[in-house]
């Protein structure tokens, strides 16, 4: 275990996972908000919004994440001049968050839409009959139940997001995969050890996360 | 606790094996020379084949187009194979990246590595080096009209290099006022430089010269020409293969004398206008 006894190496390892944490946290929040909006659009009575939601999901869900993040740097930043911070590291971080969020939002949207299907149609009809508007029906009746039905699937989306955060490394965020590359570059004789520690760290954090979402889903399930 | 005990047992086992091997060597020193046959010389003589690890993405040095490779490192690889008695058809080129060169050598995936491989003390503990066949230095690639004159003028500037590489690390530690952009390939750095998102690209001068001489960037970039490190490029091979290493140095010395070294340069990096270097045979490693 000599590699991780070196303080500089340990530091690199911790920094890598700190970036993963920051990327996951920010992207999860933004993707959740975007995903809810997209799901609302996809079930809304307005054709333009439905079209927009469908297009978003089909484009981003079917494009490799590497390409999306790469586009955020070379497309949004390089070509279109969208600069999110003067600091290079922060700029790359936020560009990655944009990429991760738009990608993950598509999956959140689809998960929620499947949740909406679990709500009996009679509830929406009854709500409409007492005079609630579409927004009100969605906000008060449908989405709370749909959300509770899809906590499990959302957990999977969240876990995928945490692992996907490593792709931010392609545009230079010093996340764990870049930290791992740097360590392997300097310690060619300890490749397996370094790999196991990095992979193990992900497993160590994500297995309990999975159980947590399972427990939460069970607790908040709508009993019918 | 458990792991450290296991390590100790493993270390003891390796040590005792090593001692045993030494004893064996003493015994049949005058014998058939069974130890040399395990190295690259043995493989070259026995199978007439060599697997050489090279870079695949560095114009002028090691560039892969389809299934063929071209560049200065490739030519050096051909010279070595010829010197070892392996025909060109017996060479299998294998693309390596910076991070997998040591593992590839240690695991026997490749027999030799000729891939802009800087000799340093840390790596010497893991592999053996023949050469150096070229002495490079870290430099900067900048747009032709740039005001950057060397690493001192990098304060606040955006510098691009490959993530995890030695040049990137040097910028981080020695020029911390520069902002470091890291990508997974130099080609992306050069794209960003062409687009103006970074002010300079940094790595060894010889690699930068290769990019500067690419047709699509003709006249756009210049290499600053003020190197701030010494990168002796060596030929990596297994740690215990000192005979193979000595043979490599002999081949290089011969190539410098008969002009094939200069010819290798002229047909590749020489095209960028840089004059052929002289191979300083006094700097060759002692292969220990």
UniProtKB/TrEMBL annotation, chain A:
GO terms for molecular function: transmembrane transporter activity. GO terms for biological process: amino acid transport. Coiled coil: none annotated. PROSITE patterns: ABC_TM1 (PS50928). The chain crosses the membrane at residues 12-38, 59-81, 93-112, 194-217. Keywords: Amino-acid transport, Cell membrane, Membrane, Transmembrane, Transmembrane helix, Transport. It is found in: Cell membrane. Gene3D superfamilies: MetI-like. It comes from the Bacteria. It is a multi-pass membrane protein. GO terms for cellular component: ATP-binding cassette (ABC) transporter complex. Residues 17-208 form the ABC transmembrane type-1 domain. Belongs to the binding-protein-dependent transport system permease family. HisMQ subfamily. This is Glutamate ABC transporter permease. It comes from Phytohabitans rumicis. The lineage of its organism: Bacteria, Bacillati, Actinomycetota, Actinomycetes, Micromonosporales.
């Amino acid at each position: 275990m000599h590699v991780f006894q070196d303080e500089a190496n340990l530091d690199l390892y911790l920094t890598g996972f700190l970036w993963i944490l920051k990327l996951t946290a920010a992207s999860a929040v933004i993707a959740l908000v975007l995903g809810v909006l997209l799901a609302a659009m996809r079930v809304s009575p307005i054709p333009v919004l439905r079209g927009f939601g469908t297009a978003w999901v089909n484009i981003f869900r079917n494009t490799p994440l590497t390409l999306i993040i790469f586009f955020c740097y070379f497309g949004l930043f390089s070509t279109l001049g969208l600069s999110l911070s003067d600091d290079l590291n922060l700029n790359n971080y936020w560009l990655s968050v944009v990429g991760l969020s738009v990608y993950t939002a598509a999956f959140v949207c689809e998960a929620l839409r499947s949740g909406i299907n679990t709500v009996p149609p009679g509830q929406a009809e009854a709500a409409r009959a007492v005079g609630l508007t579409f927004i009100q029906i969605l906000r008060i009746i449908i989405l709370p139940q749909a959300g509770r039905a899809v906590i499990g699937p959302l957990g999977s989306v969240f876990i995928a997001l945490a692992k996907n955060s490593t792709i931010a490394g392609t545009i230079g965020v010093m996340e764990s995969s870049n930290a791992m590359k740097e360590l392997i570059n300097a310690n060619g004789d300890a490749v397996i050890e370094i790999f196991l520690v990095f992979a193990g760290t992900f497993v160590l954090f994500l297995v309990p996360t999975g159980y947590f979402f399972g427990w939460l889903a069970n607790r908040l399930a709508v009993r019918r | 606790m458990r792991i450290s005990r296991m390590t100790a047992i493993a270390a003891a086992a390796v040590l005792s094996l090593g001692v045993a091997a030494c004893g064996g060597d003493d015994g049949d020193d005058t014998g058939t020379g069974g130890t040399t046959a395990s190295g690259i010389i043995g493989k070259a003589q026995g199978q007439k084949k060599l697997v050489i690890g090279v870079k695949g993405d560095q114009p002028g040095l090691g560039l892969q187009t389809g299934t063929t490779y071209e560049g200065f490192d490739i030519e050096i690889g051909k010279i070595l194979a010829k010197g070892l008695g392996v025909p060109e058809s017996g060479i299998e080129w294998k693309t390596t990246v910076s991070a997998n060169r040591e593992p590839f050598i240690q695991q026997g995936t490749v027999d030799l590595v000729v891939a802009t491989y800087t000799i340093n003390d840390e790596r010497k503990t893991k592999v053996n080096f023949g050469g150096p066949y070229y002495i490079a230095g870290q430099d900067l690639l900048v747009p032709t009209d740039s005001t950057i004159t060397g690493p001192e003028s990098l304060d606040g500037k955006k510098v691009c290099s490959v993530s995890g590489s030695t040049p990137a690390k040097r910028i981080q530690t020695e020029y911390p006022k520069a902002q470091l952009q890291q990508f997974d390939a130099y080609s992306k750095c050069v794209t960003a430089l062409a687009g103006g998102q970074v002010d300079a690209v940094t790595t060894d001068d010889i690699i930068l010269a290769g990019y500067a001489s690419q047709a699509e960037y003709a006249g756009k970039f210049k290499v600053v020409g003020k190197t701030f490190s010494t990168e002796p490029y060596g030929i990596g091979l297994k740690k215990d293969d000192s005979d193979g290493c000595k043979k490599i140095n002999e081949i290089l010395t011969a190539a410098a004398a008969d002009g094939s070294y200069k010819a290798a340069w002229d047909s590749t990096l020489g095209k960028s206008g840089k004059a052929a270097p002289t191979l300083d045979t006094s700097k060759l490693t002692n292969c220990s």
